[in-house]
Amino acid sequence: MSLKVLTSTYRLRPLSRLQIIQGHMMSSHVEPEVLLERVGNAGVITMNRPKALNALNLSMIRHIYPQFKKWEQDNETDIIIIKAVGGKAFCAGGDIRAVTEAGKLGGSLAQDFFREEYILNSAIGTCRKPYIALIDGITMGGGVGLSVHGQFRVATEKTLFAMPETAIGLFPDVGGGYFLPRLQGKLGLFLAMTGFRLKGRDVHRAGVATHFVESKKIPDLEKELVHLKSPSAKDVSSVLDSYQNQSSLDSEKPFVLEQHMADIDRLFSSSSVEGIMQNLKADGSAFATKQAETLSRMSPMSLKITYRQLQAGASLSLQDVLVMEYRLSQACMRGCDFYEGVRAVLIDRDQNPKWNPSTLEEVSDQSVDECFSSLGDKDLTF
Questions:
Q1: Which DSSP category does 200 fall into?
Q2: Which of 33, 95, 173, 214 is catalytic?
Q3: Is 150 tagged catalytic?
Q4: What H or E segment, with its residue span, contains residue 300?
Q5: 173 among known catalytic residues
Q6: How confident is the model at residue 302 (pLDDT cuts 50, 70, 90)?
Q7: E strand residue ranges, 103-190
Q8: Catalytic residue among 43, 93, 94, 137
Q9: Which of 112, 165, 263, 340 is catalytic?
């Protein structure tokens, strides 16, 4: 075989691999990955990848967005509901593994996925009709983006919420820079940096969900919602309030972080991530020690990006936050921690990422600044 043929074959391999990844992200199975139906007076979006915990991919985004915009402008559609099948997950996140594979090979999917996902997040945040997310199961990352910016978010005892991105060398995106700093005190920063998981009624108590309804009541709630005639947001709220008032499950249990809220506000009040770590180590309590240990496992670069993201996002609009986060997403695609985090957590699952830089002190202000820099004509636009 000639050198020319060998070279041609070698060049084709990455392309073939990329085509496989594109096929994965743009896949069209016989069973639709997302169902889009008119039910009564409602447009209903149903996440339909239960075996993948309803992870969001580019194909699903490209199906949801145009139909969402059509329903928003359609006089016959009064409300929009998003839910999922499978009973375990609403949406456990974006299809991050496929994104990193594409990023390694220079595929456009690494840009397209984040851009189109964030445009959908923005559309949900500005929807002119009542938008109700029934987050009856695992809701993380991309699943948070599909729900938290909507007017109504209904948690159940099955809901598990987290933004675990700092553990994979990313940051709490999909508008995390907008909603997290608007939670009470320093709770949002704590959730963003540690990836702490909230369950059931605590998702409502934290302010992530607007309502809590027992899972067994969700089918009846949905039936009542889809048959509302020309409802105002107040009408929808009244129905949700009614079902919430009928849901007493776990109502006697205190908020899981209740006894730590004052500590979180105190310990996470610092002008730097290093300062927060110093606060935690100096405190010496079991709670503070556990959080220090958690943060020590996270990507140092991710922690610093996340800290500044939430600091900036506290005074920005959702759209401006998403523009900022798109810049950050592309910085992560250019870096190495995102790929290493996905390898350690999702691929090899050794839970032992080798971060670079490996310490907070090695992450320079300049390197963080560069992550927030404009992408010029490649910036996200709406």
A1: T
A2: 173
A3: no
A4: helix 300-313
A5: yes
A6: very high
A7: 131-135, 138-140, 152-155, 160-162
A8: 94
A9: 165
The whole-angstrom distance between residue 48's C-alpha and the CA centroid of its chain comes to 18
Partner residues linked to 79 by β-bridges: 42
Annotated active-site residue in 43, 107, 142, 176: 142
Span 238-274, pLDDT tens digits = 999 999 999 999 999 999 999 999 999 999 999 999 9
DSSP annotation of 185 reads: T
Look up 313 and say whether it is catalytic: no
94 classed as catalytic: yes
Six-digit token pair at 13? 């391999």
Closest by Cα among 38, 37, 154, 203 to 47: 37
138 neighbors 53 (Cβ within 8 angstroms): yes
Non-local CB neighbours of 134 within 8 Å, separated by 6+ positions: 81, 82, 83, 84, 90, 154, 218, 221, 222
Residue 133 C-alpha from the chain's centroid: 14
Site of tokens 């999702």: 346
Provide the whole-model pTM.
0.91
Q: Quick one: which of 98, 93, 36 has its CA closest to 62?
A: 36
